[in-house]
Every structure is written in structure tokens, then in C-alpha cells.
């Protein structure tokens, strides 16, 4: 993926400006690249669409090539999709004893992850944990959990031969209550693929335990298959989160993106090895970086954006201190707002944030209005911009016509300028008292 994207963006880099066609061409390649990274087709398609809307019309940061800018936009959009609500890695384990149900296919890493998580809850959160293996199918599966329990110093439910999974779950619940445990973890059996028997068994266990957390453990290397697994388990059992294992391997983590998009459930942890401490809180930034593989460019763009913002802020502060605020200053402010309008697009992509994006739009802060206001300013002469008092009736008509708008629109803009100018003057005066200097640091 990384190589492929490098190729695309190199090509863009050599061009001066990023046209809509350039964005489209680049994103078509991004789509192919995402598919190669095991992102599912509909997810890749939706993602690219959202990024396209977002990228088109966005200003290119000074000293950054358009291609680099696109990398950053794709990267930020990836993070937004990967991010869930709430704190990453947080588990609902209040009201003891809190049951945690571990589900997934065989070999995905359920038993290993059960033990890793038990260790984490014990050591990091100071919880008393009881683990129980419900895997009556695979020989020695129960012993496997008992051995891990021994190794990490976490109790396991004594093994009773011949018990079915539901009976074991009931016994675990009773034992956890009597023994004063904070959490009990149910490690279920898996199949090589999803089947009816597996689902019925897990459903029965779920109904007995009413888990606070139902974690789906999936092999991060299985890519496309992992998505079907997630879809099925979420539909039948209802999962509260995902643990992606084998992220220490060289897979590209594309499964993370599709699972997040398909189930909407948070990815809570990633498994990074066979050892008991190889479990980490999921970090969207890291996975996004891995899917895209262009961390250097992203860092470069971030740095440039920071520098430019700091420079602009400083220039603005200096002018304010002198009580200056002309149409050029207003234009700069409007342009910054458009950059934030990019956030509106971002919000639209995040689950549950679509409504907020609408509100921003309704408040008249959408890009269209801002761009019209900028067009009006651009239609002014240099002199007029620096000195808005010059704007009398005939000039107003010319400017409005030049921007394809009405004089009333220009009047609104001028009113806004006056209000902001007054505000700036006030702030500028305060600045002489030292506050501005403070703010500039
Ligand atoms: P289960 O059938 O779902 O219970 O899977 P297991 O927990 O028994 O794991 C199957 C194999 O995967 C074992 O050899 C584990 O050591 C290995 N495994 C589990 N998680 C990880 C991981 O994050 N990274 C690596 N490299 N191996 C893992
Ligand atoms: Mg197992």
C-alpha cells in the first residue's frame, strides 16, 4: 500500500496545484490500495467518497505540495473512522462480579487474550478476576487456560469433566459471587468457521451470564474474513467491542477499518504477541499510520500547518495591537474558518456527529457563504481592501457585480467587518496592558 500511494502522491507532487480531477485520480488509487490492505469493498468505497468531498476545495498549506496535503487528509479521515466514542481500552467492570464474555472463531486468540486481559485487569486496575474456560470441544483447551492462569497468578474455575458450557457459565457466576471476585471472564469455544451450533451455544451462555462486555477476538491478519465474523457475531450475540490479535505480524491492519465501519463497535485492544503482556490499548493513530504507511509526510504537513498558524496569529496580534483590522485581515479569518469547515466534513463521517455537522451548516457557517464573502473581498481593489471607508455606493455596486452578488450581501460583509474591527480594537487596547503579549507566547 505504502509503495503504491507513494507513487500516486509523487506524481501529484510534481504538479503545481491540486485540481478536483487530481483528487479523484489519487483517490481512485487510494481505493485500490485500501482493497489491497484487506479493507472490504463497500467500506473502501464509502471512505474514498467521504474523503473526496472533504479534500476538494480545501486550501493547500503553504510550503506543502498538494500531494502531501492529500496524504494528510486521507490520514486524518482514517483516524476519524477508526476512533470510537469513549476512552479506548475502557471496560465496564463495575458492579461486581462483572461478567466478560469472550467470543470468536477458533484460533483467533480468545484464550490467550482472556489471560492477557485478566492480567491487565489485575495489575492495572486492581481487580480480582476469575477465569473460566467453556471450551468443551477442543481437548486440553481448559487446561490451557488453567496453565496461563497459574503463570499470571489469576484464579481459574476448577475443571469438572462432562459439564456443558451453560452449566460452566452458571458455576462461574456462582463462584464469582461467593468468592468476592470483581470480574469473571468466560472463554468460549470457537469453530473454524461460523456455524449455527456455535452461535446457539454462545447465545445460551450470553443469556445465562448477561455479560457487561462481550468482546469479539479476531485475528487481525484474516482481513476480509474478519469482517464477516464481526458482522455475524454482532448480529447474533451483540458485541460491545473488538480485540484485534496478531497485530505484531506484518498485516496492514485493513481489517480494523472495515470492522469499525461495519459494526460501529470500538476496537478496544490489540494483541501484539504471544506473551502475556503483549496486549495494548487500541490507538487509531498508529493503525492509521500503518494502513497508510506515510508517517513522515503526515508529520511534515502537521509541522508546516502549525508553523503557518503561529505565523498568522502573530501577524494578526501585531496588527490588532496597532488597532488595525482591514478587509485583508477579514479575508484571512474567513479562510481559516473554511479550513475549519473541513472539520464539518470530518464530523459528518464520525458516527453520531452528523447532526452537529448539520447544525454548523444551519448556522450559516458553511463553506459556500464563506467563499462568497471571500469572493466579495477579492473583488475589491488593493486600496479598498486596506481602507474599507472608501466603499461608497458606486464602488459597492461594482464590487457586488464583480463577485456575482448583491449590494445587500456586501453590506452584510461590511457590517461584519465593522463589528470585528471594533472588537479587535478593544482587544488591542487590552493588549497594551500586557495581556496580548501574554497571549502571544
Ligand atoms: P483461541 O482458539 O481463540 O482460544 O486461540 P488461542 O488463544 O489458543 O491462540 C491461538 C494461537 O495464537 C496461540 O498460539 C497464541 O499464542 C497465538 N496468539 C494469540 N494472540 C496472539 C497475538 O496477538 N500475536 C501472536 N503473534 N500470536 C498470538
Ligand atoms: Mg481457546
From TrEMBL:
<keyword id="KW-0694">RNA-binding</keyword>
<dbReference type="GO" id="GO:0005525">
    <property type="term" value="F:GTP binding"/>
</dbReference>
<feature type="binding site">
    <location>
        <begin position="187"/>
        <end position="191"/>
    </location>
    <ligand>
        <name>GTP</name>
    </ligand>
</feature>
<dbReference type="InterPro" id="IPR000897">
    <property type="entry name" value="SRP54_GTPase_dom"/>
</dbReference>
<keyword id="KW-0378">Hydrolase</keyword>
<dbReference type="InterPro" id="IPR004780">
    <property type="entry name" value="SRP"/>
</dbReference>
<dbReference type="InterPro" id="IPR022941">
    <property type="entry name" value="SRP54"/>
</dbReference>
<dbReference type="InterPro" id="IPR027417">
    <property type="entry name" value="P-loop_NTPase"/>
</dbReference>
<dbReference type="GO" id="GO:0048500">
    <property type="term" value="C:signal recognition particle"/>
</dbReference>
<dbReference type="Pfam" id="PF02881">
    <property type="entry name" value="SRP54_N"/>
</dbReference>
<dbReference type="GO" id="GO:0005886">
    <property type="term" value="C:plasma membrane"/>
</dbReference>
<dbReference type="InterPro" id="IPR013822">
    <property type="entry name" value="Signal_recog_particl_SRP54_hlx"/>
</dbReference>
<dbReference type="Pfam" id="PF00448">
    <property type="entry name" value="SRP54"/>
</dbReference>
<keyword id="KW-0342">GTP-binding</keyword>
<protein>
    <recommendedName>
        <fullName>Signal recognition particle protein</fullName>
        <ecNumber>3.6.5.4</ecNumber>
    </recommendedName>
</protein>
<comment type="function">
    <text>Involved in targeting and insertion of nascent membrane proteins into the cytoplasmic membrane. Binds to the hydrophobic signal sequence of the ribosome-nascent chain (RNC) as it emerges from the ribosomes. The SRP-RNC complex is then targeted to the cytoplasmic membrane where it interacts with the SRP receptor FtsY. Interaction with FtsY leads to the transfer of the RNC complex to the Sec translocase for insertion into the membrane, the hydrolysis of GTP by both Ffh and FtsY, and the dissociation of the SRP-FtsY complex into the individual components.</text>
</comment>
<keyword id="KW-0963">Cytoplasm</keyword>
<comment type="subunit">
    <text>Part of the signal recognition particle protein translocation system, which is composed of SRP and FtsY. SRP is a ribonucleoprotein composed of Ffh and a 4.5S RNA molecule.</text>
</comment>
<feature type="binding site">
    <location>
        <begin position="245"/>
        <end position="248"/>
    </location>
    <ligand>
        <name>GTP</name>
    </ligand>
</feature>
<feature type="domain" description="SRP54-type proteins GTP-binding">
    <location>
        <begin position="266"/>
        <end position="279"/>
    </location>
</feature>
<dbReference type="Pfam" id="PF02978">
    <property type="entry name" value="SRP_SPB"/>
</dbReference>
<dbReference type="GO" id="GO:0003924">
    <property type="term" value="F:GTPase activity"/>
</dbReference>
<dbReference type="InterPro" id="IPR036891">
    <property type="entry name" value="Signal_recog_part_SRP54_M_sf"/>
</dbReference>
<keyword id="KW-0547">Nucleotide-binding</keyword>
<dbReference type="InterPro" id="IPR042101">
    <property type="entry name" value="SRP54_N_sf"/>
</dbReference>
<dbReference type="InterPro" id="IPR003593">
    <property type="entry name" value="AAA+_ATPase"/>
</dbReference>
<dbReference type="GO" id="GO:0006614">
    <property type="term" value="P:SRP-dependent cotranslational protein targeting to membrane"/>
</dbReference>
<feature type="binding site">
    <location>
        <begin position="104"/>
        <end position="111"/>
    </location>
    <ligand>
        <name>GTP</name>
    </ligand>
</feature>
<keyword id="KW-0687">Ribonucleoprotein</keyword>
<dbReference type="InterPro" id="IPR004125">
    <property type="entry name" value="Signal_recog_particle_SRP54_M"/>
</dbReference>
<dbReference type="GO" id="GO:0008312">
    <property type="term" value="F:7S RNA binding"/>
</dbReference>
<keyword id="KW-0733">Signal recognition particle</keyword>
<comment type="similarity">
    <text>Belongs to the GTP-binding SRP family. SRP54 subfamily.</text>
</comment>
Amino acid at each position: 500500500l505504502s509503495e503504491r500511494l507513494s507513487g500516486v502522491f509523487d506524481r501529484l507532487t510534481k504538479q503545481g496545484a491540486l485540481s478536483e480531477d487530481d483528487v479523484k485520480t489519487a483517490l481512485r488509487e487510494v481505493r485500490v490500495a485500501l482493497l489491497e490492505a484487506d479493507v472490504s469493498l463497500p467500506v473502501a468505497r464509502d471512505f474514498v467518497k467521504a474523503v473526496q468531498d472533504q479534500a476538494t476545495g480545501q486550501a493547500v498549506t503553504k510550503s506543502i505540495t498538494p500531494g502531501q496535503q492529500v496524504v494528510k487528509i486521507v490520514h486524518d479521515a482514517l483516524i476519524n473512522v477508526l476512533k470510537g466514542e469513549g476512552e479506548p481500552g475502557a471496560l465496564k467492570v463495575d458492579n461486581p462480579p462483572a461478567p466478560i464474555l469472550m467470543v470468536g472463531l477458533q484460533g483467533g486468540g480468545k484464550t490467550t487474550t482472556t489471560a492477557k486481559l485478566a492480567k491487565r485487569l489485575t495489575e492495572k486496575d486492581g481487580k480480582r478476576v476469575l477465569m473460566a474456560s467453556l471450551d468443551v470441544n477442543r481437548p486440553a483447551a481448559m487446561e490451557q487456560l488453567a496453565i496461563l492462569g497459574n503463570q499470571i497468578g489469576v484464579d481459574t474455575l476448577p475443571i469438572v469433566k462432562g459439564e456443558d458450557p451453560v452449566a460452566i457459565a452458571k458455576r462461574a457466576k456462582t463462584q464469582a459471587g461467593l468468592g468476592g471476585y470483581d470480574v469473571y471472564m468466560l472463554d468460549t469455544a470457537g469453530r473454524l468457521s461460523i456455524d449455527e451450533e456455535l452461535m446457539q451455544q454462545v447465545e445460551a451462555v450470553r443469556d445465562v451470564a448477561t455479560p457487561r462486555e462481550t468482546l469479539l477476538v479476531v485475528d487481525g491478519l484474516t482481513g476480509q474474513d474478519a469482517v464477516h465474523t464481526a458482522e455475524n457475531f454482532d448480529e447474533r450475540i451483540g458485541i460491545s467491542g473488538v480485540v484485534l490479535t496478531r497485530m505484531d505480524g506484518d498485516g496492514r491492519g485493513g481489517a480494523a477499518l472495515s470492522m469499525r465501519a461495519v459494526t460501529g463497535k470500538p476496537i478496544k485492544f490489540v494483541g501484539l504477541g504471544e506473551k502475556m503482556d503483549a496486549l495494548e490499548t487500541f490507538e487509531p493513530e498508529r493503525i492509521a499510520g500503518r494502513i497508510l504507511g506515510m508517517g513522515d509526510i503526515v508529520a511534515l504537513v502537521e509541522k508546516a500547518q502549525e508553523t503557518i498558524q503561529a505565523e498568522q496569529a502573530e501577524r494578526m496580534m501585531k496588527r490588532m495591537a496597532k488597532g488595525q483590522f482591514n478587509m485583508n485581515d477579514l479575508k484571512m479569518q474567513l479562510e481559516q474558518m473554511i479550513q475549519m469547515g473541513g472539520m464539518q466534513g470530518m464530523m459528518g463521517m464520525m458516527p453520531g456527529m452528523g447532526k452537529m455537522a448539520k447544525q454548523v451548516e444551519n448556522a450559516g457557517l458553511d463553506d459556500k457563504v464563506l467563499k462568497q464573502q471571500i469572493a466579495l473581498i477579492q473583488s475589491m481593489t488593493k486600496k479598498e481592501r486596506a481602507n474599507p471607508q472608501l466603499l461608497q455606493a458606486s464602488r459597492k455596486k461594482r464590487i457586488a457585480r464583480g463577485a456575482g452578488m448583491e449590494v445587500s450581501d456586501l453590506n452584510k460583509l461590511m457590517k461584519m467587518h465593522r463589528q470585528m474591527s471594533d472588537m479587535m480594537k478593544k482587544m488591542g487596547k487590552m493588549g497594551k496592558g500586557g495581556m496580548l503579549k501574554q497571549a502571544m507566547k
